[in-house]
Amino acid sequence: MTAYDEFSYARDALRLLAADYILKPFEDGELENSVRRILPKLKKEQEEQTAVLGDSNRFVRASISIIEKEYADQQLSIASIASELNISEGYISRLFKKEMNTTIAAYITQYRMKRAAYYLKDRHNYKVYEVCEMCGYSDVAYFSAIFHKVYNLTPTAYQNNAMEM
Question: What DSSP string describes 13-59?
C-alpha cells in the first residue's frame, strides 16, 4: 500500500509480483474487494508449499529408512537411494540437505560410524576388520581413518577403552 498515484510505482509493483494495485483515490470497499480476490490465491500457494514440504519430509524419511536398513551395503550411495525412491539424485540431495542440514553422504558416514562404535563396544569382541565390513567398508585403513576422525581414537583404542569400562 502506498500514497503515490504515479504509474511508475504501479509498474514497479508489477515487476515485484504485487498481487494487486489500487490507484488513489479509491472507493469504499475497493480495498476489501482486492483482499478478497487475493486470499484464494494466497491459500492455494500455501497449500502447494505444504504439499511440497510433505513430499520433502516423505522422501527424507524414506532415505533415512533406506540408510538404516542398508548401511552395511558397500554400494549404498546417493545414486542407489535416489534410484530406489524413483527421483533424481539432485532432487533428493537438495531435499535432504534442506531438511537435515547435512548431505546424504555425510549422514551415511555418521550412521555407519555410530553402528561401528556400537559393534566395537559390543561384548561379542568383533575384530576391527569384521566391524569394518559390517558397516559397509571394504578398506580397513580407510574405515580406521574415518573412525579416528569422528571419535579421535582408532577403532582398536576405542574398543579397548570400552572393554575397560
Answer: HHHTT-S---PSS--TTHHHHHHHHHHHHHHHHHHHHHHHHHHHHHH
Q: Report how far residue 135's alpha carbon sits from residue 119's, in angstroms, rounded to the nearest whole number.
A: 9
- Residues, the chain: 165
Find cell 509498474 and name the residue. Answer: 11
pTM beyond 0.85: the answer is no
Whether 148 and 141 have beta carbons less than 8 Å apart is answered as no
| b/e per residue 67-83 (b: at least 16 CB within 10 A) | beeebeeeebebeebbe
Q: What are phi and psi of 152, to 5 degrees?
A: 60, 25
Q: In the numeric block, which cell numbers belong to residue 9?
A: 510505482
pLDDT at 44: 76
Write out the three cell numbers for 67: 540408510
Q: Where are the alpha helices (DSSP H) in 86-126?
A: 89-100, 104-121
